[in-house]
């Protein structure tokens, strides 16, 4: 019997896509023991923006959140999203920091680490992969993830080659991550067939978003074409910029006699639990109705929806909305000059801002942003295709070569840890505290100070009561 399994994303990606990752643990802790019985392939619950959001907005310790989820879902694989050498942000961390982060993630309860790089520069995945293998147990899975994008150089053959490379590197599973939701059913069919033919038994996972309205068709074609796992969200947290609905895809699979391993009663119970949670955040305005709608503009303009709204806001700020059409044409041109990077953060902003600048200044690349300069210097990794030669020479000087961002990483002095410990002093009580500080210094320090103050207050009360 054909089998397709489900990764439930309500705790991470759906939460991130629909409500800016502001879902506190206290809103869902009670349903975790039920979710544990659902039969998901995995529950994506950590990484991405959850870590930053815990510290910055929710006054939660992200590590404690993970331990609580682990405790309440002992039978389910817990999954996180990791941006390779950038961990959870956009900065390039040293190898020893990446290794420690992975070690602590596994120690605190993570089973599956989905590792990606915005540019698909796989050198940025190696350290995290090796650490996953080093500190993992028999239930740990290292998932190699490709940032999906469309361009003249991103052909089926190119994606198949990338998948083969990830398998060669030692990843246990492969994931295609379509963050903009622009993968069509046609593309899914050819990609999944091509990849499955090339990698044999290695499980292939499809992650897409409903943003443009294509996700259900795309997932259906992917299932027909042999995909092993799909990412979905419990239905009240599905659609719009989030994933397709778990129960809906389950129902469709069932009619085709596809085994999913899901318990229908439980997945409905999970949805019933989250309905009032969602309503609460619609009422507070945290869930914007816009994020729940279908927006097909990305298909028309070939730029992700978020990037487009960003550009419109920029142009409005500068009273230059009359240049919108020109800027729209300039985006693909800049992207080509940069060697067709996937349009994800921070590259989408980089390309969008440079396109607007080129149009408003009236001369292409008369002003070049520091981010674009750093990109050409190689600080983000290798571009998917050759960059524009003339522009490269303008930025790097004649004969200039981009740096190899991997060179500095050979050092293993633990310097970042020493500095972080010194900065935190007695605020740091664990390696996890130190890691939070390395990742998000200002937010972590504020959180740890709060924690200390709260404890002192509690201690004072206890004395009075005695
Ligand atoms: Co996503």
Descriptive account of the structure:
The model has no long low-confidence stretch (mean pLDDT 94). The protein folds into 3 domains: 280 residues, TIM Barrel (Alpha-Beta Barrel); 100 residues, Cyclin A, domain 1; 52 residues, no CATH class. It is globular. The N and C termini lie far apart (65 Å). The chain is built from 20 helices and 8 strands. α9 links the parallel β7 and β8. It has 466 residues and is an alpha/beta fold. An 8-stranded parallel beta barrel has the order 1-2-3-4-5-6-7-8, surrounded by 6 helices. α13 runs parallel beside α15. The site of cobalt (II) ion has 4 residues, from loops. Cobalt (II) ion binds next to loops.
Topology:
Elements: E1 5-8, H1 10-19, H2 32-35, E2 42-47, H3 50-56, H4 62-72, E3 78-82, H5 95-107, E4 112-115, H6 126-135, E5 141-147, H7 156-169, E6 173-178, H8 185-199, E7 204-208, H9 215-224, E8 229-232, H10 246-255, H11 264-284, H12 297-301, H13 305-317, H14 324-337, H15 347-361, H16 370-376, H17 389-396, H18 415-424, H19 431-439, H20 441-465
Parallel strand pairs: 1-2, 1-8, 2-3, 3-4, 4-5, 5-6, 6-7, 7-8
The chain binds cobalt (II) ion.
Shape-level CATH architecture of the largest domain: Alpha-Beta Barrel
CATH superfamily of the largest domain: Aldolase class I
- Indicate the low-confidence ranges by residue numbers: none
Mean pLDDT: 94
Percent of residues in helices comes to 40-55%
What value does the Rg take, in angstroms?
A: 23 Å
What order do the helices and strands follow? EHHEHHEHEHEHEHEHEHHHHHHHHHHH
User: Which structural class do the helices and strands define?
Assistant: alpha/beta
Task: Compute the number of helices.
Answer: 20
**Total count of domains:** 3
Strand proportion, as a percent range, falls in 5-15%
Per the principal axes of the C-alpha atoms, what is the gross shape? Answer: globular
* Hetero compounds: cobalt (II) ion
Instruction: Specify the biggest β-sheet.
Output: 8 strands, parallel, barrel
Ends distance: 65 Å
């Amino acid at each position: 019997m054909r089998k397709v399994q489900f990764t439930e994303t309500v705790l991470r990606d759906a939460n991130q896509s629909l409500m800016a990752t502001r879902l506190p643990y206290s809103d869902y802790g009670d349903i975790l023991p039920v979710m544990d019985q659902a039969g998901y392939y995995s529950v994506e619950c950590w990484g991405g923006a959850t870590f930053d959001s815990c510290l910055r907005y929710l006054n939660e310790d992200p590590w404690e959140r993970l331990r609580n989820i682990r405790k309440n879902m002992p039978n389910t694989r817990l999954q996180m999203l990791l941006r390779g050498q950038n961990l959870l942000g956009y900065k390039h961390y040293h190898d020893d920091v990446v290794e420690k982060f992975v070690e602590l993630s596994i120690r605190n309860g993570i089973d599956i680490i989905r590792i990606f790089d915005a540019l698909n520069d796989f050198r940025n995945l190696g350290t995290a992969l090796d650490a996953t293998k080093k500190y993992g147990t028999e239930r740990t899975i290292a998932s190699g993830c490709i940032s999906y994008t469309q361009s003249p150089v991103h052909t089926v053959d190119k994606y198949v080659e990338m998948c083969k490379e990830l398998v060669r590197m030692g990843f246990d599973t492969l994931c295609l991550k379509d963050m903009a939701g622009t993968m069509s059913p046609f593309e899914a069919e050819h990609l999944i067939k091509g990849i499955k033919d090339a990698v044999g038994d290695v499980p292939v996972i499809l992650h897409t978003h409903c943003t443009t309205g294509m996700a259900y068709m795309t997932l259906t074609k992917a299932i027909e074409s042999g995909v092993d796992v799909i990412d979905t969200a419990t239905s009240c947290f599905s659609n719009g910029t989030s994933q397709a609905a778990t129960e809906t895809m389950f129902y469709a699979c069932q009619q085709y006699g596809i085994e999913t391993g899901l318990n229908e009663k439980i997945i409905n119970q999970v949805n019933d639990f989250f309905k009032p949670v969602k309503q609460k955040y619609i009422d507070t305005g945290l869930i914007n109705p816009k994020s729940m709608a279908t927006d097909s503009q990305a298909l028309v303009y070939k730029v992700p929806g978020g990037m487009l709204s960003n550009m419109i806001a920029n142009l409005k700020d500068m009273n230059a909305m009359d240049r919108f059409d020109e800027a729209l044409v300039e985006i693909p041109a800049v992207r080509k000059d940069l060697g067709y990077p996937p349009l994800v953060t921070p590259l989408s902003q980089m390309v969008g801002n440079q396109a607007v600048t080129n149009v408003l200044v009236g001369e292409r690349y008369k002003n070049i942003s520091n981010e674009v300069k750093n990109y050409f210097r190689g600080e983000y990794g290798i571009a998917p295709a050759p960059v524009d030669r003339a522009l490269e020479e303008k930025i790097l000087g004649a004969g200039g070569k981009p740096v190899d961002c991997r060179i500095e990483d050979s050092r293993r002095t633990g310097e970042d840890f020493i500095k972080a410990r010194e900065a935190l002093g007695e605020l740091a009580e664990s390696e996890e505290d130190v890691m939070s500080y390395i990742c998000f210094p200002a937010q972590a320090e504020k959180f740890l100070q709060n924690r200390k103050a709260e404890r002192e207050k509690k201690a004072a009360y206890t004395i009075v009561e005695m």
